Structures are given as structure tokens and as C-alpha cells.
Amino acid sequence: VAATGWKITRVTHDAATTCGDDRPTWSPLGGQILYHQRTGSDCSHNRILLVTVSSGAERVVTEDGYIGPDVPVTDPDFMADGLHVLFMARCYALGDCFSQSLNPVVVDLNGANPQFLDHSDGTEGAYRSYETAAAPDGQHVVVAALTWPGDPPVDSFLFDTFGNLIVTVDQASIGTITQPDWQPLP
Fold first, then answer.
1. Would you say 186 and 166 are in contact if contact means Cβ atoms under 8 Å apart?
2. Which of 20, 97, 162, 184 is most enclosed, with most CB atoms within 10 A?
3. What pLDDT, on a 0 to 100 scale, did the predictor assign at position 165?
4. d(CA 104, CA 102)
5. What gap in Å lies between CA 50 and CA 15, rounded to an integer?
6. What three-state secondary structure class fits 173?
7. Share in percent of the chain as helix, strand, coil (round to 5)
8. How crowded is residue 67: how many other Cβ atoms within 10 Å of its Cβ?
9. What is the pLDDT of residue 157?
10. Rounded distance, CA 69 to CA 73, Å?
11. What is residue 66's DSSP assignment?
12. pLDDT for position 96
């Protein structure tokens, strides 16, 4: 819908036959939207789709199992270049990863070349990441995370796109962090 109101345009048409569409995010290049969708008889299968607004054409960018066996995907966001997608997925084949935590992943717009920016195992004593957002500079992502009860309360991390931890913010200083995002500054 335009900011002035007026006519509402439906972008996705599959929610009636799936378990719903959520987490839409506009391409910084305009004209395309990424979104998350749950499917399956028990609503346990996750997909990240890309829709071209002008034509209504949709295609799957990635889904559970694409980047590794039993690897669920969620929480999509465009990277600043509009050609890469950031999302959360369980780590796989990384040795010490026990699949208790989601981790930020960047892929090409066609779902290829996954790059895990972190690989928290989420076991006791470690944090569990759950949401992410790409920075407008194209060089950083923020990740919201929780720790096990009794552990030091860590709530947010800032990574560069090479997976290097830059900043940690604990919940004692600002409270619980959910649905992180960035303010685009010039």
C-alpha cells in the first residue's frame, strides 16, 4: 500500500495453502521482496522466497535442507547490494556445532555459496542466536541472541561480513533485544 493509503496490492497469494507468510523485506534495489514461509502438513518446513512485485513471479531462494541435512532457515533480510541474502540457519558440518542455535548465513540471491558468519552451538554456557539484520553499509550484520539461564546475559552481537565479532551488547545495559534492524544514515 502506498504511504498515502489508497489501493492495497496483494503481493503473495500462497498463505491460504501454506501456514503463512511473514518477515517481508524489500530489496534495497527496489521491486523485489524476500519473505519467510512455513509449509507442510505440520507447518514445520521453512522456505525463503523472493517475489518480483511488478510481475508477481515467485521463486525459492533457500529452504530447509538446501545448505545441509536437517538445516532449517528463517528470518531473511537483503544485504545492502541487493544481490545477497542474509538469514538464520542451524549450522552444519562445522565440527563443534550441535545445532542448538541458529546462525547468520549469507547466500547469493539464487541461494548458492552459503557463508556462515558465526557458528554458535547453543549448548549450555553458549549463546543461542535467533534473529539478524543486515547493515546498510553492506559490511556488517547484527545478531540477537540469548544465553542459558544463569549464564552471563548476552543479547546482541555485531559481526562484519567476514564473521569477525566486532561488538557485544549485554541485556543488563539496555534490556532484551528482539527484531534488530539498522537506521540507514548517509
1. no
2. 97
3. 66
4. 7
5. 14
6. helix
7. 0, 45, 55
8. 22
9. 64
10. 12
11. S
12. 46
Identify the CA nearest to 76 among candidates 63, 94, 58.
Answer: 63
User: Cell numbers at residue 44, please?
Assistant: 514445520
pLDDT at position 161, please? 63
Q: Which three cell numbers stand for residue 170?
A: 549485554
Note whether 18 and 39 are within 8 A (CB).
yes
pTM of the model: 0.82
Q: Which amino acid is at 42?
A: D
CA distance 157 to 101: 14
Per-residue model confidence (pLDDT) at position 90: 78
Which among 19, 47, 55, 42 is positioned nearest to 111, based on CA atoms? 47
Give 69's DSSP letter.
T
Cell of 82: 541487493
Q: What is the pLDDT of residue 183?
A: 79
The answer for residues whose C-beta is within 8 angstroms of residue 143's C-beta and 6 or more apart is 104, 117, 118, 129, 131, 132, 156, 157, 158, 159, 180
- Residue 145: per-residue pLDDT: 75
Single-letter code of the amino acid located at 1: V
Across the 186 residues of the chain, what is the mean pLDDT of every consecutive 10-residue run?
A: 83 78 92 93 92 92 83 90 91 54 87 83 66 85 70 57 66 68 73
